[in-house]
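REQUEST ID: PR-0412
SUBMITTED BY: lab tech R.K.
PRIORITY: routine
TASK: structure prediction, single protein chain
INPUT:
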Amino acid sequence: MKKFKTKAVAFDFDDTLYSGVNWSFWYDHCKNSVKKIIGPQPPEKQKIIDEALQKEKFGDHDAIALLENFGMGQKEWVQWRTYNKAEDAYKHFEDAKAIKKEVLAKFAKNFPLYIVTNNYIDGMNMIANALGIDLSVFKGIITATSEYPTFSKKYRYLKICELENIKPEELFVIGDSITDIEPAYEIGARGKQVEDCQFKFEDFDL
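STATUS: complete
OUTPUT:
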């Protein structure tokens, strides 16, 4: 039997365990949400908001950065996201494709699996049920609004190492974005960026 260097695997969720979604609806939701949190502002402050919202792909980190100009930040954004969902968001997932069941099963056979995501747990459940992703194979799902309320993936990767009692270099991270992989490298973990969910177990040096 092959001896693996890896002792735990962490996956991003969106665009990694499934893919094929146009995320423009989410960027619009983030823009509308941050405007509601900040509220009306005098012209000089409104200019800061207007300039920030010019960014096309305006997501969580952008919202937090903008809120910090107004004495707020991650705490307020997490609270808002917890209680204000993107209405009708999940209609955008009808054409998405999911990771192949046999691929996920092979990972689960060899390693404890975790998901590290900025999605909501209820949203994840809706997507997983619609696409046939078996979330029960994951030992832990760490969202930005769970018991570890932070958008720092580096912190959450370290939490996995603590939970599994492993060294960072024994954790392998798989995600679609460099923002998934860079925090892993920063703590000494290994990882690989993927283009979509159609990868195989054998694609990784585990």
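NOTES: Helices lie at 24-38, 43-52, 60-67, 74-83, 101-110, 121-131, 153-164, 178-187.
REVIEWED BY: pending
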